[in-house]
Amino acid sequence: MAQIITMPRLSDTMTEGVVATWLKKVGDTIKTGDILAEIETDKATMEFESFHDGVLLHIGIQEGQSAPVDSLLAIIGTAGEDISALLSGGTATETKEEKVVEETKAVTSSAVEMPAGVKVVTMPRLSDTMTTGTVATWLKKVGDTVKEGDILAEIETDKATMEFESFNAGTLLYIGVQEGDSAPVDTVLAILGPAGTDVSGIAANYKVGAVAEVPKTEEVKVVSQEVAIAEQSTSGRVFASPLAKKIAQEKGINLSQVKGSGENGRIVKSDVENFSSSAVATPSQAVAEASNTVAAVKPFVPAGEVFQEEIKNSQMRKTIARRLSESKFTAPHYYLTIELDMDNAIASRNMINGLPDTKVSFNDMVIKASAMALKKHPQVNSQWREDAMVINHHVNIGVAVAVEDGLVVPVLKFTDQMSLTQIGTSVKDMAGRAKAKKIQPVEMEGSTFTISNLGMFGIQSFTSIINQPNSAILSVGAIVEKPVVKNGHIVVGNTMTVTLACDHRTVDGATGAQFLQTFKAFMENPVTMLA
């Protein structure tokens, strides 16, 4: 029976998609798990996997074409099957949409029979870009009494690890996502209700009608070479891209021996191309080779153990990698570097900090000077869109903060309207909460410009990747004491180097240079920032 495949909704804001590449052609045999195509959404280009077996009978959207979500993407069925009725909009066979409707009706009817007091808790959407979440820690276990306001679990999103609070009271009857496992938004996370209530049917029905059950990610283990060789996959399915499978077949490579470097251990093209059968040896071969080597070499050779550790990528680390890659390879970066005379800034800071209950850092001064310079050069405070360039006349500066799992960027809203002391207080508060994983996603949204400061680590100069959709990011180095020329004489001075990374689509070289000149004037004459 032919199945209609529609353009999927691959992000929360996606309304249409573009077929970047078809990895199958009409007439090809399709198996569940095969990648049909690469779909370009409003946020990324993603692989689209088939959930059906059969033959690809029809392609509805060609490469490079865009179409709204739910448009006819493809039809999969048996070879030679008549699909004319489906192409003409008929209903000779059951379509995917009809099946979903029937399942939804079944769930609705079962929901009516839900026992009194039972509440289904689903994976929450804790950030604007979150599509999946990982349960970092369960703070309650099945059988525990839960009160409204109790913390059920810590959920790891693409931006931070956050505490998830219960809005219901009852007994924790069921846990749907185990610690370390990931699941899409709206998947059953837990069920609360009166103690002793049987909720097995509720959990099963909800999964059928809402979100398909996601395979659990295999736990990453650190093992010796001998144990790793002996272990074999028991799942019966090798997770590999179609191209990787094809190359492996041509080269006669057993994919069960290939270690995948893709997401969730998926084997990709480079894994197969770089695979060497000589790297897979039996324990006895390894011992024999080691013995021969020892016998052949007379001088003493230290015998050590090769030790490697694999750490599963967090949602934050995956998101950082994806967004920085997108920025670096889509925005044409260029860099402008300038050196600042910091003698007046040092003197001004000492005077300000001499006042009661006042504490200002050099980073606070950089933020304030940047905000004031952005008001004078709003094109640097812009973002690129395919149809237009957006000039932001409000200034929201993001401040990069290093945390245990990676990097977050809290945002100071309307920075140009803040005083130096207000900036200092806000940055200290948000940075502290970010490191303690207490900052909210809304506090990391809406930046128009970003500052990254590594001066406190002694880094004198560096370049950063633009934090899109911003058009620029300022990299701030350390203050260095060195000989400088003033009024024709060599004296000891204090300098600081800053580098502005710009998106050439929105910020021309002259515009970026003028911004840095204005920024330099504010930093070298801090009194002008107090006016």
From TrEMBL:
Stretches assigned to the Lipoyl-binding domain: 2-77, 118-193
Peripheral subunit-binding (PSBD) domain: residues covered: 239-276
Pfam families: 2-oxoacid_dh, Biotin_lipoyl, E3_binding
InterPro entries xrefs: 2-oxoA_DH_lipoyl-BS, 2-oxoacid_DH_actylTfrase, Biotin_lipoyl, CAT-like_dom_sf, E2/Pdx1, E3-bd_dom_sf, PSBD, Single_hybrid_motif
Keywords: Acyltransferase, Lipoyl, Transferase
Names of required cofactors: (R)-lipoate
EC numbers for this chain: 2.3.1.-
PANTHER family: DIHYDROLIPOAMIDE ACETYL/SUCCINYL-TRANSFERASE-RELATED, DIHYDROLIPOYLLYSINE-RESIDUE ACETYLTRANSFERASE COMPONENT OF PYRUVATE DEHYDROGENASE COMPLEX, MITOCHONDRIAL-RELATED
Similarity annotation: Belongs to the 2-oxoacid dehydrogenase family.
Protein name in UniProt: Dihydrolipoamide acetyltransferase component of pyruvate dehydrogenase complex
